[in-house]
Structures are given as structure tokens and as C-alpha cells.
Amino acid sequence: MPGANFSNAECLEQEMQWFQELLILRGKITFEQSQTEAAIEKIQLPDFSDSSSDYAQLIQRHQMGLEERLVLLLALMPHVKPHLLDILHIKNQTYDMPFTEFGGIKGEKHRGFLPTGETAVFLLAGSNLEKRFELIRLFESDHYFSREGILSLEHQSTDEPFLSGVLKISKEYLSLLTTGENYKPDFDGSFPAKRIQTDQEWSDLVVGEEVHQGIKEIQNWLIYGKKLKQDFQFGRRIKPGFRALFTGPPGTGKTLTATLLGKTLDLDVYRIDLSLVVSKYIGETEKNLSRVFDLAENKKWILFFDEADALFGKRSQTADSHDRYANQEVSYLLQRVEDFNGLVILCSNYKNNIDEAFFRRFQLVVDFELPDYYQRLQLWENALHGEFAYDDAIDLRDLAEKEELSAAAIVNVLHFCLLKALERNEKTIRQKDIIQGLRLERIKEGKSIVG
After folding, report:
1. Alpha-carbon distance 326 to 285, whole Å?
2. Residue 224: how many other CB atoms lie within 10 Å
3. Residue-wise pLDDT tens digits, 315-330
4. Is residue 1 part of a domain?
5. Contact at 8 Å (CB) between 187 and 193?
6. What radius of gyration do the chain's Cα atoms show?
7. 432 lies in the same domain as 284
8. Are residue 198 and residue 157 in the same domain, yes or no?
9. pLDDT computed for residue 280 by the predictor
10. For the domain that residue 336 is a member of, what is the CATH number?
11. Rounded distance, CA 350 to CA 357, Å?
């Protein structure tokens, strides 16, 4: 009914009504032979032109016709109303087995019918070979179903027929087209990345001018990079995406910078610890990294690869199969990084550990250094935000000069001091708190505590 602002659920209810009509019609065409293929084209699809639901918006954006809408609906149906597919369990009485042309499989735990590409093609084309061949385009890599990560055919074996793959809707679109919420994956056995956020602001990041210039360059690309690539002739000369390498000691602001970029420009930041990926998934590194890149395509994500030394460290000449495999992992990651159309940041605590051959792959290298005296003094002075105070006996200038600490280390010391102050039911940091906090920080960093 035009003019109604349907929800996702209301749209899907109407979609499934015409699906049932098509299902019955297919039976009349193929088995009863009381209808012709032309009847399929006469099915009236619901009109969602005035709806703002995510389901309606997707259909409108791609101007989906009957074929695309049926494939999309089949992929959704096991998650929405699986019982509507139960009729496809019917057996061929002649051979006492399911009808091969229906396609579909049974899941390990799901008791319903899981539609395959064969299911969609049969419902749309029956036994018409020319039409069947034409419909294969819906599942090819250049179709927007695949290109935008909406749905795919998932094959259990490479030796099986192409259309035998299960119709699988992506988790992102399953969430968007049902609950209307954006799916945000998190770390698990099949997705080695974790979404990271920060409550801090740019004023909390104390770095040198060169780092600020590097951050500004990244911000400019995030704001104008897509426009330059798509709207100007120069865009043909540059690769998609932007690749930056952050180097420097721990606690100097590398991760904070990545999260602040995401926070400022409303982008999700996903952290991938390469040391964990390589060690935990030895032999499956490419497969696990592939899941991250596949999910990240065409999304507003920043990919932040921590511990880059794990794959990009200096290597001696290939000596055995393990070295050769490690080189394959590096080549694979480099290729995916260069093909990715978003921002990729690789992070290393030690610049000298990165093989020089890799530096040319980055558009930008930002060196985060330990804060100098003036930066340390700024960190000590501004960290308390006026909520706590230093005892008069504490000389912040002397503290900043003698203690060469990273920003993170200063925060750790103050964290200890503030807890001590609250334990005393006061908001004053005492000299003995600072001394004890510094001692604990030195122990943690493996430094001498003499004096």
C-alpha cells in the first residue's frame, strides 16, 4: 500500500505473501502443467517506494526486481520464517528421495530447509536451461550481492556444483534487514579483531608537531580521499585506501590516535593483534585475516594492526618451509592492505624491527616518540582536570625533568596516586604517593629501582 511507512517486519510479511504465491505457481507450472512460465512475470510485488525501512531502502537503492528479491528473501527466510520452506522437504515418490531440483540442505542443528542457489534458480526458471544460465549472474562476484557483501553461496566442498552452495546472508545485512541495527562484530575464534573505543579527546594526546602533521594528513584523506579518487582524473593514478605505519615506544599515543580518528569521524576502529593471529592460527593466518578484510569492505572501519613486527620484521634468507610460509603470509597481508579501500594503520613499537622493503608500501610513516620535558610537564599539569590537586611539596618541573616517562606511564602513576588519595578520603596527591607510584612503574618496566 503506497504511502505507508512500513517497518522491516511489515515489509517482510508482505514479501513472504508473494513468495508463497510464487511457490504454489511453480508447482502448477512444473508438476501440474496447468500454468506457463509467463505467469511468474505477472506476480505483483509489494510497493515499498514510500517506506524508509532498511529493507525497503535496499530494494530501492538497487531497483530490485522479482529475481533479486526472491534470492534475498530465500537467504533471509531460515532466520525469519523457516516453516514456509517446509513444503520443499517433500519427497519424489518415484525414487523415495527429495526432489533434486529443489536443492537445499539440512543443517547440523537446524531442522528446517536451508535453501541453496539451486532452490532459487528452480523457483525462478524451472527446467528452462537458458533462463537458469542467465540467473547464475546473481551469484557472481561482480553482482552487488557479492560486491557489497549482502549474500553469497557458501559451498561445503569445491567439487560440488556451483548452485549447490547454501544461500547465506551476511551477519551485517541480517541485522540491518531485521532489527534495523548495524552489526558490529567482536573478537572470537573466526574473527581475530576487536572493536576499540576511547573516552579521551584530542586535548589528551600530547605529541610533537610532526605527529600532528601526520594525523592531519590522515584526517584529510578520510574527509576528501574518496572525492579525489572518484571525481578527478588524478584518482586513476592512486590506489584505493590509505596506508599508514605508526612506530614508537609503548604508551606514546599510537592506539589513542587511531581511536580518536575513529571517534572524530564516526568510524569504527578494529584492532588486530598480528602476534596473536600468527601464533594462534598458524597455518590459517590468511583465512582469518581474510574474514576481517571481507567484513571491512565498503564499511566505515579503520583497521588497526598492532604488533606489526610479527609479520613485517626483518627476515633472513628463506631457510625452510616455515620461512617460506611466513613470506606467503606477508605477501597475502600486503596484497589485502593495498587493495583495501579504507584506512589501514600498522603499528610497531620498534621501527628498526620493520624490514625496510616494506616502508614503500605506506603513504605515511608517523614516528611517535617519548615526550620531551615540556610535554611531560604538560601531561603532569593537565591530567587531573582540576578534580584533584598536588601537595605543595611536589615539584612538577623537577618531576618532569628527572622522570623520562611515556604518557601512558604518567597516567599509570597518577592512577595509583588517585586511588591512594581516595583511600584516605581526600583529593590531594602526596609526595610519598608519587614516589611509590614511580617505583611500581619502574618495576613493571623492568628498570632499576635503586634510588
Report:
1. 9
2. 11
3. 544 444 445 555 677 7
4. no
5. yes
6. 29
7. no
8. no
9. 59
10. 3.40.50.300
11. 16
Residues 80 and 113 grouped into a single domain = yes
pLDDT digits (tens, 9 = 90+) for 353-372: 777 777 888 899 999 999 99
State the pLDDT at residue 352: 79
Question: How many Cα atoms within 13 Å fall on the side-chain side of residue 29?
Answer: 19
Q: Do both 363 and 377 map to the same domain?
A: no
One domain, residues 203 and 135 = no
Does 189 fall in a domain?
Answer: no
Q: Give the pLDDT score at 332.
A: 78
Label the pairing between strands 343-348 and 151-154. Answer: unpaired
Q: Which residues of the chain fall below pLDDT 70?
A: 1-5, 189-190, 279-283, 313-327, 447-451
Q: 211: burial class by Cβ within 10 Å (0-12, 13-18, 19+)?
A: buried
User: Under a CB-based contact definition with an 8 Å cutoff, are residues 40 and 22 in contact?
Assistant: yes
Domain that holds residue 435: 373-444
Alpha-helix residue ranges (DSSP H) falling in 110-208:
117-125, 129-135, 144-147, 171-178
For residue 187, tell me if it sits in a domain.
no
Rounded to whole angstroms, what are the CA distances from 147 to 141, 152, 259, 328, 389? 6, 10, 28, 26, 56
Same domain, 21 and 119: yes
Strands 166-169 and 343-348: unpaired
Q: What domain count does the chain have?
A: 3
By the 8 A CB rule, do 358 and 334 touch? yes
What is the spatial distance between Cα 369 and Cα 206, in angstroms, rounded to a whole number?
A: 11
Residue 186 within any structural domain of the chain: no
Q: How far apart are CA 445 and CA 343, in angstroms?
A: 32
